[in-house]
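User: Hi! I have a protein structure encoded as tokens and I'd like to know what sequence might fold into it. I'm fairly new to this, so please keep things simple.
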């Protein structure tokens, strides 16, 4: 492979083809540090033309390609396997904001742009790019699109797919498809854009995207409500949608155990209530009229919810600092889990109306099979996406508990399927769930997915071993 690597160096520059173990290390281990793969090299192109040139070389020499953005994925989708045959193509040097059009309300960004960079560019133009998630300071827009990332504002704005109008893609053959159209209506055949969004780099490599922008809200208000059960949270969601309409942009469910973990490992963070409640909802309104209108809307919602016995208490942020403190409680749940020790994560979705039943029934099944396990249940209730995580019993061996991961996954995923849900809501399949999904998709659906893969990537060089 020396000849192949020499040609890669000619294409992108010597210093951007990494082959030493120490130089490649950060690109080969997944975000959760559960797996480290091997690679022939890490290649870092500067622009779309260099991406295409490297892919053409990979075709010539039959070298697999693992596209990688910020490497913040949780399903082993952006790291290579342990064969050492593939290159990792890091897209972080493709980091230009190419254009901002405030009349068309669009922004064109290269795939290696950090999500926070896109948010800031939109804000500088007086606009909002609403995709928001915990890793926004390190994840890239190409990775967001490749995994169809969701985040906290899906309820109002949709996930990454809904926020993208057009793509530039390097195909598996090293050709460049220029689909950077800022059109909201384009009914001219198959929607090729949607093929690549959510495909996790298995069909081609996203190099740039046209993204939707929105007006900056005049006011954003945050509140934390306490309640007895997920069913009460669903009642509050229905009331909030009725009272607030499109101003409701965030609706996050968190169990008491989630916030107790946060308090345990981050004692500087405190709940605004004098007592504990079984469940909490963090909700946010984004109002395009005025702060007074937003306050009146939120006050009316909370008053009605208290009168109808949906909630037991509520705290409304009176400043930006207080709002950030409430959101910090939610954002620190995964960090607190990590501090607590090993756990078994699930990123699932079920129909919103069935979330309460799913939580109750699945909790019972897990306690029957794995007595004492602790449920860390939180997520985006407004769009049906739960992070339904399972921690070991207190004072038990974490490694012994993790040995039951396959059996626990089976309980959870079978329950998700029984409730008409999905075993991956926003993280994707990657290598972690590639085989698992075969239990829940029909052969017809899997067959169509395989046909697409074969048609677009017949040599199976694009992120092999992932998704399908």
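Assistant: Happy to help. Inverse folding works backwards from shape to sequence: for each of the 468 positions I chose a residue that suits the local structure. Here it is:
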């Amino acid at each position: 492979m020396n000849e192949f690597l020499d040609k890669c160096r000619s294409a992108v520059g010597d210093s951007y083809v990494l082959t030493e173990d120490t130089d490649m290390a950060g690109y080969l281990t997944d975000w959760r540090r559960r797996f480290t793969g091997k690679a022939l090299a890490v290649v870092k192109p500067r622009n779309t033309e260099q991406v295409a040139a490297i892919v053409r070389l990979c075709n010539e020499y039959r070298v697999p390609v693992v596209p990688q953005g910020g490497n913040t994925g949780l399903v082993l989708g952006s790291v290579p396997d342990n064969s050492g045959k593939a290159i990792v193509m890091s897209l972080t040097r493709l980091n230009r904001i190419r254009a901002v059009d405030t009349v068309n309300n669009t922004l064109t960004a290269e795939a290696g742009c950090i999500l926070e960079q896109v948010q800031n560019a939109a804000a500088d133009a007086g606009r909002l790019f609403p995709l928001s998630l915990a890793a926004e300071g390190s994840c890239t827009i190409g990775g967001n699109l490749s995994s169809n990332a969701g985040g906290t504002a899906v309820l109002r704005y949709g996930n990454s797919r809904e926020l993208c109008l057009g793509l530039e893609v390097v195909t598996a053959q090293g050709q460049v498809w220029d689909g950077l159209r800022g059109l909201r209506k384009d009914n001219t055949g198959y929607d090729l854009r949607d093929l690549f969004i959510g495909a996790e780099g298995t069909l081609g490599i996203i190099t740039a995207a046209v993204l939707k922008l929105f007006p900056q809200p005049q006011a954003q208000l945050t509140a934390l409500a306490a309640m007895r059960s997920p069913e009460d949270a669903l009642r509050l969601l229905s009331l909030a949608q009725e009272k607030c309409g499109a101003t409701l942009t965030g609706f996050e469910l968190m169990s008491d155990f989630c916030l107790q973990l946060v308090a345990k490992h981050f004692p500087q963070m405190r709940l605004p209530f004098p007592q504990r409640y079984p469940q909490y909802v963090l909700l946010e309104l984004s109002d395009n009229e005025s702060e007074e209108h937003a306050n009146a809307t939120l006050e009316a919602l909370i008053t009605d919810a208290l009168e109808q016995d949906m909630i037991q208490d509520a705290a409304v942020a009176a400043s930006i600092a207080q709002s950030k403190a409430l959101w910090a409680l939610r954002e620190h749940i995964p960090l607190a889990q990590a501090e607590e020790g090993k756990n078994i994560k699930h990123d699932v979705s079920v129909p919103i109306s069935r979330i309460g039943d799913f939580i109750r029934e699945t909790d019972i099944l897990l306690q029957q099979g794995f007595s004492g396990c602790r449920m860390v249940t939180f997520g985006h209730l407004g769009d049906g996406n739960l992070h339904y995580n399972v921690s070991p019993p207190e004072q038990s061996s974490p490694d012994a508990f993790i040995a039951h991961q396959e059996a626990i996954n089976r309980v959870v995923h079978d329950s998700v399927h029984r409730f008409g849900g999905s075993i991956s809501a926003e993280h994707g399949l990657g290598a972690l769930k590639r085989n698992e999904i075969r239990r829940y998709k029909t052969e017809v659906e899997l067959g169509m997915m395989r046909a697409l893969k074969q048609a677009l990537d017949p040599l199976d060089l694009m992120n092999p071993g992932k998704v399908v």
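A useful reference point when you look it over: The mean pLDDT is 96. Feel free to ask if any position seems puzzling.
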